[in-house]
Amino acid sequence: MHKPTAGWHADTIAIHGGEAPQDPHGALVAPLYQTSTFVFDSTHQGGQRFAGEEAGYIYSRLGNPTVNQLEQRIAELEGMQAGAAAATGMGAVAATMMAFLQQGDHVVASDAIYGCSFALFDHLFRRFGVEVSFVDMSDLEQTKAAFRDNTQLVFLETPANPHLKLVDIAAVSKLAHHHKARLVVDNTFMTPLLQRPGEFGADLVVHSATKYLNGHGDVVAGLVTGRSEDIELIKFTTLKDMGATMSPHDAWLILRGLKTLPVRMQRHCENALAVVAFLQEMQPAGMISRLYFPGVNQDEQSSHESDLLQTQMKAAGAVIAFDMSDGFRAATRLLDQLSMIKLAVSLGDAESLIQHPASMTHSPLTPEARAAAGIGDGLVRLSVGLEHADDIITDLRQAFTSLKKGAENTALNTD
Ligand code: 3LM
């Protein structure tokens, strides 16, 4: 059986969590069970396994030892009872939500969420008779007013994609539980190393494991953790029957990636602070009108956000967003000037990645929904990677400088 990990630090769980008993050959690393099906000793045994009367594997869509090890490890990292693995982050979000919803139900969701989660709720759920109210979850009165008698689920991201708005998980979980609804938190931007939503009352925690958890840009995958009975329901209804399960090879890569998650997150966060300091310098130059990063947001929310940074997060993370003063044109010109920093969606990889949310990750939102969520056409999102901070800053500096030169030349030519 799996060794108990009580008392282990997250750094140790990231390496040993979910470890199987000793391999018959003494292999250090968990073997990859790259198999679709498992052979039964007898028809009696096959029948018993299907009936749930004998433990053991049947078929990889229903369970696989490599995938199970990852499910166990992420559950231990999040401090939750159990975990389930999905083919993608969206597979995890969809399977989690749909396990608890039926026609006529209602969901309260944050208006600041990843574009495809918005599309799933706003387009697909509506077709199946589930209504979703999108609210500004930093406004607890607005959130409270959105609940109805048929509210089953509450969904939020904090920090939110793309502009890092923070939500008070404990306060929203109180509202959800008062209405007997489950709270689902997407913890992709933080990882369990920086934030454990279950400690603040979240019932289910979902991840795009494509991002920091795998961390090497070579997998798309999703994970969900929660109470055992909820995870059983997700695994053996939506995940199994929709077929959104994770491949053993992806699970194996994520198990490998997780081993370095603690050291990677530390470096990501240090680099992000250096880049934020550089961008703060840019602001007086007038090229950036607003910088978004937990702890430096400059509005009336900032003191509340600083409190949340202290109470619910261990660090601010490594995704930064900023509004270019000259809007869409300046944002796209800046992105096209970068050289080492890659122009690509996704985040949490070793490579620094930069993208334009309005035309990319958040293009599934209607212009009205983008405006309500505060995602402007001049907004840029940067995932700070693991390169040397000086090299990231050098690339940003040369892009800003050439943008400035371009603007001065245009001004001269029009004089
Ligand atoms: C992105 N995000 O660049 P997958 N939850 C959050 C996410 O950020 C994402 C998902 C779920 C991005 C992907 S855009 C085409 C690229 C907070 C994904 C979904 O299904 O593994 O992509 O996760 O912001």
Taking the alpha carbons of the first and last residues, their distance comes to: 77 Å
Low-confidence regions: none
Structural class: alpha/beta
Determine the strand fraction and express it as a percent band. Answer: 5-15%
- Give the CATH superfamily of the largest domain: Type I PLP-dependent aspartate aminotransferase-like (Major domain)
Put the structure in a nutshell:
The protein is built from 15 helices and 12 strands. It has 415 residues and is α/β, with parallel strands linked by helices.
Give an account of the 3D structure.
Keywords: Lyase, Pyridoxal phosphate. The protein is an alpha/beta fold and 415 residues long. It contains 15 helices and twelve strands. The chain has helices at 10-16, 43-50, 65-78, 89-99, 115-127, 140-146, 169-178, 191-194, 228-242, 248-258, 261-282, 302-311, 327-337, 367-372, 389-414; strands at residues 82-86, 106-110, 131-135, 151-157, 182-186, 204-208, 222-226, 288-292, 319-324, 342-343, 353-355, 379-383. α5 (115-127) links the parallel β2 and β3. The mean pLDDT is 95. The site of ligand 3LM has 19 residues, from α4 and α5. Ligand 3LM binds at residues 88-90, 93, 114, 116-117, 157, 161, 186, 188, 208, 210, 220, 222, 345-347, 361.
